[in-house]
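Here comes my example:
=====
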Amino acid sequence: MFKRLGMLVVIFICGYLLIEWISITHPFVLSEFFIAFVVNPLKFFAASIACFIGVLCNGKFIRELIHKLRNAWMKHVQWGKWGIQLITECIGLFLVFIFLFQLGWEHTLVFFSLSILYGMISVEI
């Protein structure tokens, strides 16, 4: 359980760093967005690394949730303690999404979309 909690903390920190290090101005101008990366390459590189690590951790978390749900569904496992842990993990991931969404909705949608896509692709059937 502590491993999963630690993974949620890593997901939140990586998402937060992505939101802080990549700024999106309103109204959005693509040329200004790219110029910011050229002017500040270290910030862009650090944000890219944070995004990459966050997407990998989030994708792994989602993949394991899908795998646990599928096994429970196929084997007709009684929920009990195992089900409470699974529901707690889902709620934890949802809370991380809500907190990051409050900080920056554009970044969070891209971050979680890539993570869900990676998590679903990596599920072994």
Summary: The chain has one domain: 2-21+41-121.
